[in-house]
Structures are given as structure tokens and as C-alpha cells.
Amino acid sequence: MLGSGILKGLAVTAKNFAGSYYDPARMVTVEYPEKRIPIPENYRNFPFLVSENAEDPMGTLRCVACQICEKECPPQCIYIEKSKDKKPDATGKLQLFPAVFDIDTSVCMSCQICVEVCPFDAIKMDQVYEIAATDRFNDLLLDREQLAKSNSYFHQIHPTEASEVDARLAAERKAAEEKAKAAAAAKAAVAKPAIPTAPAPAPAPKPAAASNAEAPKPPPPVA
Amino acid sequence: MSAAFLVSLAASANAWMSGRAFPARTLVAPDADRFLERAPLAARDWVVGFFPVSLHWLVHSLISIVAVLAVFGLFFAFLTIIERKLLGRIQNRLGPNRTGPFGLLQPFADAVKALTKEDIVPAAADKLLHFLAPVIVVAFGLMGFAVLPFGRDIIPVELDAAVLYFFAASSATELAIFMAGWSSRNKYSLLAAMRALAQLISYELPLLLSIVPVVMLASTLSTSEIVRAQGGWTLGILPHWNVLTPWGAAGFLIFVVAALAESNRSPFDLPEAESELIAGHLTEYSGFKYALFFMAEYFGMTALCGLGVTLFLGGWQAPCAFLEFIPSYVWFGAKLFGLILGLIWIRGTLLRLRIDQLTRLAWKFLVPLALINLANAAFWSLTAGLPWPGQIARWIVSMALVAVPFVTIGRTLSAGLAPRTYKYA
After folding, report:
1. Which residues, in sequence order, are CB contacts of B76 under 8 Å at separation 6+?
2. What are the beta bridge partners of residue A48?
């Protein structure tokens, strides 16, 4: 009959109205500042620089100022100045570090390309979303102090990715140590004119591909 | 039997012709003089007493105006938040709850925002009309309140042609909407203005036809007389409201549908169709002028609901005899509020109609029903004096006169249109 659809519709809205009072599962909104929906692990927004130690973030940045991300960044929001001196990186090798590392978050589009091109696992995606600022120029241009966040924070926001990175870095560090040991042994062998032995064990295959499950648990970040 | 019927028919016809179908009820309710019942009038008379006699008429009117503005201004303010809360709950949201306890201060925050916003007048606009439109829309929106009996003897202006005056005033708001749409010099606004007029010619006819039976049976255009005619109870619990008769119920439904269209509310918010016309005639308005339009919309809706309560729901009359101790204006307010809640419920449920659908609904469905309802009311009035077996037949015939046209016209109109099948859905 004419009008029965209207009555059905009114019944539906009445049910919603009453249900919203006793059935919290119906509510589609979350009262945001007080309550938050947990962020999915794969959520990403704006890059940050990983430092090994929260106590000394500037001294333990993984970034070696290779400037690949600066060149690859599609909107050109990264600005890097290399340092004059060197210091040991995550694998113990002496490397440059960024004297200046700026990201203009008003330009950044969170595309993650900087993360994908970084060979040092030094830049990763953050999960910040409360980034409102009152000054559109100074507050949105983040320098390296603001960008540096510790590895433990990285573990917090992206646990899977962080453990995988830690395992890889540990394997690299181990390989580097073995290589150094082998080199030292070879040097010693060369210095001692003796029967030429077999060459030093071939350098370990690039462990980047090693998604090995048997990799040792990552050691705590070097202090 | 049939002779008795004919005689009584003739008698009641005679009574109706002579305007005595509803004998004036001179019964004074036993508690009509109670303090709470008299309080508003006593307060008014007390204030008027401070002024010289020559100024009494002026002070009297000014107090009425101030009271209407204050009461319905506040009512409007809180109606906005009640509506938003209700719509929120209907959509399983919480609604505004940030400003003050339960968000109760939200209307005041909205008012401050509207007052401090920049008032923009388009360069190409007709400046005078653009300024006048919001003023006129509020003025006409408020004029309707003048003839509503808010309680026993509480009526700002006692007019003999109150119903006529009410519709003359309230349909003039459509003129202001056209002014707003025309003067904005904006295509969307102009479309809205044209829609408003198309809507006007659609709903005005059923709106007026739906209230003619009430006027006919009460034999008066005075709102306070119409309310008084609905007084009294059968067995002390069944009120003699118009809505509780078959023709009254049908008239009330037609009235509500037409009133929804008159107050430009969903599902008939065609002039202001946000999803089609940005904001229609309000597109070029901001700040306080926008707030005035908003206010006028709510005033218009409140006044129309007040008229609906007056004509069909017994006005300030209590629903049962033993509930008469509650002051009459409380009853009026409660009925008004209930009716408005119903409109909000409808707004939260139905979709907007197209303009041709509205015209079709109004002219092909509501107008014939309203005309048949007119005949039904005449039948009802002529058969008022029947003895009780005749009364049962009277109810059955009258109900059939409502239901049969509803079903047949509905079937005929929706033949080939409903239920809709969706080929690719």
C-alpha cells in the first residue's frame, strides 16, 4: 500500500534512535581526543630518521648523508648537507653523517620512496597525524633534531619491519666483523711468507636478501 | 429507523446551516482560575498596571511581542541542538556534545559564530533586496505566532479571521525566499527561487484544503474558537480533538505533509537542496543574515506546527479530564514539541523528492484526497445527531471515505511506477 515504505523507514530510524542508547556497538563514531582507534601497523605518514640510541640521537643516526633520498624525492622536500668528518655507522664502518637534514612536511606527500631507496635503513615512515602547526613555514620544516627518533620507537610503531631491519643489520655487522677478521688473518699470512693458503673466505652474500628465520635475535642497539 | 435518520439528518443539517452544529461550550473548567493557569496573564496585567491607561493597549501588545520573541527565540535555539542530537542518534552518532554539559551551550556558540562572521554581499547582487530578504523572511515567519492560542485566553491577537491571516502571513515567506534567490545574482540561488515558487503552487492548495473541514465544522475562522470547539471529553478520557475523527485524521496527515513542504524541510527541502544547489537561496548569504534565514525556517515550522496543534490536536486542551490540573500552555507546548519531534523524525528518515514528484504528489494525490475529505467532513457534520447505531454506521462510512480513496488513488498513481525494479542492481 502507498505509504508502507515510509512507515518501514520510520521504523528503521526509530530502531536506530533507540538502539544508539543501549547498544554501544551501533555507534559509528569515536570521541576522538579522548578515545582513539588503534592505528594499523602498516599505516604510514611522513618519514623520520632512525637513531640507534635515544640518549644520543644525533651521534647515532643511521643516515650517512648519501643523498639518494634527496635525489629521489618526487616533490623535492628533503635537503641534506654532508658533514666534514666521519664517524662509525651501524655496521662499524666510518661514514659521513648529515650535518643538516631537513624535510619540509608541507611539501612531503608520504610516498615512502625515500624509505624504499635508502640502502642504510636510516629513514623510515612515521605514524604521526596530529601535526597541526601555527606557522606554516617554520613549524612544518622539520630539522634533523625533530626528525630523529630512536630505534625503539621504530619497534613500537612498526614491530615487524623493525625486527626484520635489526636482524639484517646484525647479520651485516657480523659479516663485516668476519670479513675484518679474515682480512687480518690474510694480512698476517701475507706478512709471514709461508705456504699460500686458501684465500680468505668469500665475503658473505649480501645479507639484504637474507630473510633468514634462523638469523640470531638482533642484539640490543650498540650503545 | 430511516425516518428517524432522515429527521435527525435534517435536524443536524439545520443546525449546521445555522452554525449551531458545535454549540458553544460555555463550561468553565473548575480550575481555570488556578494560579499557574492565570500566571502569565496576571503577570502581563501587573506590568501593564504600571503604565497610564492611555498607553495600556501599546504596552499590552509590546509585552505579547516580547514574550513571543523570548519564548520562541529560546525555543528555536534549543530546537537546533535537539534536532542535531536526534538526527545524530538516528544515524547512530552522538550529536554535538562539546559545548557545555551535553552540548547544551552549542546554540550560543553558533550564535556567536554567526554574529562574528564576515557579512558578504556579492558585487553583482541587488543590494537592497539582498538585505531585505532575511528581514522579511523573519518578519513574516513571526507574524504567524500572533494568532496562535498558546493557552486558555493566552493569544496575542484575537482575530475573527485568524486562520486566513495566518496563511496570508506564512505564505509570504516564500516571497522572501524568491527575493533572496533573485537578488543574489547567482544561478543556484535563482534555481532555488524558482523551485520555491513551484513548490508554493504545489503545496498551498492541499494545505488550505486540509484545514477547510476544521473551519467548516467549527463554523469560525477564529483559532481560539476552534480550540474551544474541541474541548470536552467522552467518558472523561477521550478528547474531542479533530484528529480523533476520520476526517480529522486524514486532514491532519495532509496538513503535515503540506506543512513539511511549506516549512522547506526534508523531504521537501527543494529550494535549499544542499546536494544539488549548494545551499539554494542561501548560497550567497553568510553570518547573521544566514542565521536569520535559519531562524525564520524554524519560526515558520514552529508556527505551522502550532497551527496544526490548534486546528487538529485540540490546542491547549488537556487529553483527559483528570489531567486538567496541568496548565493549558504546558499542554500546548507539549503537543507542539511532540509534533516538531515527529517532523525531525521524518527529516531523519526520508529522502528529498524531485520537484515534479512533489507537484505530482500534491496535485494528483493530496488535492483529491483533501476534496473528498471536505465531503467527508460535511457528511460527518450532517450526521452528528444520529442515535448510537447510526453513529457506528457514521464512523464506518466516514472511515471508508478516508481509506478507499487513499488506497485507490494511491494504486492508480503508482501503477507502473512502484514497486520499482532495478535492472542492473
Report:
1. B295, B298, B299, B302
2. A124
Kindly indicate the confidence band of residue A125, based on its pLDDT and cuts at 50, 70 and 90. Answer: very high
Residue A125 lies in a domain: yes
Contact check, Cβ <8 Å, B94/A16: no
Bridge partners, B234 (sequence order): B238
Stated pTM of the model: 0.74
Task: Tell me the pLDDT of chain B averaged across its residues.
Answer: 83
**How many separate domains does chain A show?**
1
A212 near B CB under 8 A:
no
Distance, CA of B189 to CA of B183 (rounded, Å): 9
What ipTM was reported for this prediction?
0.76
Contact: B350, A12; criterion CB under 8 Å: no
User: Nearest residue on chain A to B361, judged by CA atoms?
Assistant: A2
Residue of A173, A185, A2 lying closest to B365 (CA atoms) = A2
Of A1, A14, A28, the CB nearest to B93: A28
Q: Is residue A41 part of a domain?
A: no
Q: What distance in Å separates residue A133's CA from the closest CA in chain B?
A: 23
- CA angle B208/B211/B216 to nearest 5° reads 120
Set of chain B residues whose Cβ sits within 8 Å of the Cβ of A3: 410
A138: CATH: 3.30.70.3270
Encode pLDDT of A140-150 as tens digits. 888 888 888 88
